[in-house]
């Protein structure tokens, strides 16, 4: 965990890749952390390996991995067949299990209303993630509210498209932002 915090302190832009074109672009980028938002059980090993070959940390979003179940067996598969550094999921049970497998964990949370905001502490108590990713990311006021309630480092993701979005999220207390936009990766 200390390693990723140091990396994000020096380079707070996390590249989210959703296809092979994005993967090719991120391999040439300065981004040191990559969120893999696509793939299937036949391709994930190669996708992770390409990222690792470029000295980047690879996080697999297990909810988006085609051909995998939403059960803990997917974590065994990723641990056995890839060199992924971390797991992203919206599911508290998978986040908790991923920690037991030795992965760095990112609990992705969609804050769409006051009910989801107020249920956040209880959900995070169940999952005990290393990091949380708040979506959509262009809500600096909400990032501030979350910082007041929890001590888990925050990543701001989703709809972060411009330099102003990046700066606002970081100034509000996010330690990093994630984006699928190569233009943002270059900031």
Structural summary, described in words:
- Helix 8 (163-171) links the parallel strand 7 and strand 8 (176-179).
- The longest helix is centred in the middle third of the chain and has 14 residues, at 114-127.
- Helix content is 44%, strand content 20%.
- It has an 8-stranded parallel β-barrel with strand order 1-2-3-4-5-6-7-8, surrounded by 7 helices.
- The protein is built from 9 helices and 8 strands.
- The two termini are 24 Å apart.
- It is an alpha/beta fold and 187 residues long.
- Helix 5 runs parallel beside helix 6 (114-127).
Descriptive terms for the model:
187 residues; alpha/beta; 9 helices; 44% helix; globular
Q: Total helix count?
A: 9
Q: For the CA atoms, what is the radius of gyration?
A: 15 Å
Question: Tally of extended strands?
Answer: 8
Low-confidence spans? none
Q: Output the strand order for the largest sheet.
A: 1-2-3-4-5-6-7-8
Overall mean pLDDT stands at 95
User: Largest beta sheet, briefly?
Assistant: 8 strands, parallel, barrel
- Calculate the terminal CA-CA distance, rounded to whole Å: 24 Å
- DSSP helix fraction: 40-55%
In what range is the share of β-strand residues? 15-25%
Tell me the series of helices and strands, N- to C-terminal: HEHEHEHEHEHEHEHEH
Rough shape?
A: globular
Q: How does the helix and strand content classify structurally?
A: alpha/beta
């Amino acid at each position: 965990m200390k390693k990723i915090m140091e990396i994000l302190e020096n380079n707070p832009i996390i590249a989210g890749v959703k296809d092979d074109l994005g993967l090719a672009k991120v391999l040439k980028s300065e981004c040191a952390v990559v969120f893999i938002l696509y793939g299937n059980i036949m391709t994930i090993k190669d996708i992770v390996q390409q990222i690792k070959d470029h000295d980047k940390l690879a996080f697999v979003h297990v909810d988006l991995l085609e051909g995998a179940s939403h059960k803990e067996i997917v974590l065994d598969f990723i641990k056995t067949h890839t060199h992924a550094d971390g797991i992203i999921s919206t599911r508290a049970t998978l986040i908790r299990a991923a920690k037991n497998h030795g992965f760095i964990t990112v609990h992705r949370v969609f804050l769409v209303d006051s009910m989801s905001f107020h249920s956040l502490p209880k959900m995070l108590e169940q999952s005990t993630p290393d990091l949380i990713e708040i979506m959509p990311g262009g809500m600096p006021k909400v990032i501030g509210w979350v910082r007041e309630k929890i001590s888990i480092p925050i990543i701001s993701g989703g709809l972060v498209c411009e330099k102003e979005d990046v700066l606002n999220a970081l100034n509000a207390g996010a330690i990093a932002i994630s984006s699928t936009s190569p233009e943002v990766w270059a900031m």
